[in-house]
Amino acid sequence: MKNIILLASVILISTSSVYAQKKKDLLDEIDKLRKELKVTKGELNDSRNKEKATLTRVETMEAQVKDLKETNASLLTNMGSFTELSKKKAQNLEKSLESLQEKDKQIKVINDAISKNDSIKLATLTILKNALGSDANIAVKNGTVLITIANTLLFGENDKSYAVTDKAKGLLGKIATALNKKADLKITVEGNSNALNIKDKSISDNWDLSAKQAAAVVRMLQKDFKVDPKRMDVLGKSEYGSSSIETATRIIINPQFDQFYSLIKESMKNGTKG
């Protein structure tokens, strides 16, 4: 009986010891799991905080991307406008350049025509100087060649006369020879008179006398020296025409301005075609 009781006691003590050990092991395991849970919760919180920060950064980056897209679209629009504006400016500059080139051509044509005209006047002046020498005053004024001859040489000492003297006939012959070498030039004979006291009833006044004197010169150039009358005009200036005290008749030699401008017009037309 005692042995049974002893055996039961031993078994009970052993069982208690095993239970106590298992309880301790369970408590240790629970403590370990609690610590792991705590660590896991900490890591979870860290992950959540990181996720929140990441989401914030993503939202910020998305906003920046949106702004960049809008800025890029605006830049592309502005670039398109700038390109179009630059294209228009380039076209305008090209048109301006073409216009300047055309005007340069026109200016060259005009300058060439003027140079040609000046050459004609210079040649005419040279011919007249060689022909007349010191017999008459020859000059270029306002684009025309002027031959000034004293009325006393043309009509004698009588300031109311409009009959050309024999002495003047030789001079007019030399002038006519020079003029006939330049058949494309226009001629105006300008009379200037200051015979204020006119008693001859065939002469109305100084206007009349100046015109008659100029006409007498033209008539002699035409009839005696074969100068084409279509080239000549008569102009009477009375006592108001001459700036000098001594009256004089002027032979004014002009280029054919209608031909001059026709030359320019035709040259411009040909320049445009080219």
Automatic annotation (TrEMBL):
Domain OmpA-like residues, every copy: 142-265
GO cellular component, one term: membrane
Signal peptide: none
Keywords: Coiled coil, Membrane
Source organism superkingdom: Bacteria
Matching Gene3D superfamilies: OmpA-like domain
Name assigned to this protein: OmpA family protein
Organism: Aquimarina mytili
